[in-house]
Structure prediction request, 457 residues.
Amino acid sequence: MAMRQTPLTCSGHTRPVVDLAFSGITPYGYFLISACKDGKPMLRQGDTGDWIGTFLGHKGAVWGATLNTDATKAATAAADFTAKVWDAVSGDEVLSLAHKHIVKSVNFTQDSNCLLTGGNDKLLRIYDLSKPDAAPQEIAGHSSAIKKSLWCNNDSQILSAAEDKTVRLWDSRSMEEVKTLTFDTSVSSMEYLADGEILVITYGKTIAFYNALSLDLIKTVEAPAPINSASLHPEKDFFVAGGDDFKLYKFDYSTKEELESYKGHFGPVHCVRFSPDGELYASGSEDGTLRLWQTAVGKTYGLWKCVLPEDLGTENSEQLYSSTPEIKA
Amino acid sequence: MATPVPVLRLPKGPDPNSRGFDPNSPRFIALCRTSIPTSAAAESDPQQLQEEQHARSVLRERFLRCLLAMSNKKVRFHMHEKVNVEATFGASDIDVLNFQVSDLHTPIGVQKEALIRSQDVISFTFDA
Prediction:
């Protein structure tokens, strides 16, 4: 008995959702932060999408948002030329880091002691959060606005993607460029999986997978439409992608086969990420919503409930069965 | 014929009246008990904690009484970029993010009703 995916819509934002990030798994579950052009990033419970709080303080569109592993801190990057660090338990603003232009990306080190920022001033900045008044270390090199910057290789290196159509790998100590990948078009998104050292890059209709240490290409997959973001499942069996045709696509990572596509969003999909346990993935769209999608459709998880054929008989759903159900629990 | 996966309920949306971060949630209680930064230090002497908490309560009460006393009075706001404006104070919102004022005298005219963003304000003065 085939089950159809029921996406869970998280409303609340009033403008396009441009970035989202999950925390790691904490004793209180895992959490999700969404960056929105309405300037009000929100924290949600990761497995249900329930709103927990809104980080108030930015005076412009928020372009990037991230959580540290235990979801005690959040960081946001905004068009008001600041990156802010927040206490993700109380919602209070802890630090405001002034920049010279729009900030697009923020990323914590694993120990949450340093914050990496990147934006339209073409510089990568490393802030020591224990010394907030100290000037950040700056890495120059990109010739256009930086869209995404991440720590990798146990925080010893940095990956950055910019409008100059390059993705660069830097040594975070020497601050020198180690390697550059050049593309024909600007990269639309980048995701880093520490476990397995895989880098997921999207550009045009392509989803490309690289070895994050050597920047050697592993494989590329073509999607039916221009893709804005993709995410690889923690177990590396699937990946999901979303883009300009409003749909979410699910692919088999080993065979590169397109398995499913889901409609639901009313605008281009800007970001998509798997949850840390791989049971669901979240997508953010131009339509101002976040949607949660099940990896294994029909499984009981979060707000989704697996209903057995016998149970369905007791509810008013007479149109559902025309033949004997073959699937048993 | 595929059945849509049943759902227990929809995700809860934002509360229109607050910014969230429920202080009664298990996570908040466990992780935020000492939200007082100085008291989060390892050597938190209970006596010192109590004194600090008392001091904070006194300051908070004074601030709230000040806001009450300001109601319908003429207040001068000293703001960033050397902006000094005078207005009749109305009220503050619950998180002290905005001040509602009337008859705001600005260099380009008098605004009958206005909202001043509290983070833009450095200080304000009034005659009690």
